[in-house]
Specification:
about 75% helix, mainly alpha
Length: about 60
């Protein structure tokens, strides 16, 4: 599945949430979409959980 198609689906979902549910639903769908994206990247192995817990300075000291 191409990233353009994924972006289209995400945009449609946000559009429907904004139209039918208002701004609160729009924000909720956007936040849950971001969480789903991060979980998907983690499951695919493109993201390491330690990246969230290490500070920027720890990489410079190595």
């Amino acid at each position: 599945m191409s990233m353009a198609f994924v972006g289209l689906i995400a945009g449609l979902a946000l559009g429907f949430a904004g139209y039918f549910g208002g701004f609160g639903a729009f924000v909720l769908v956007a936040a849950l979409g971001a969480v789903g994206f991060l979980v998907g990247r983690f499951v695919d192995g493109d993201l390491d959980a330690g990246d969230f817990f290490r500070g920027r300075d720890s990489e410079r000291r190595r």
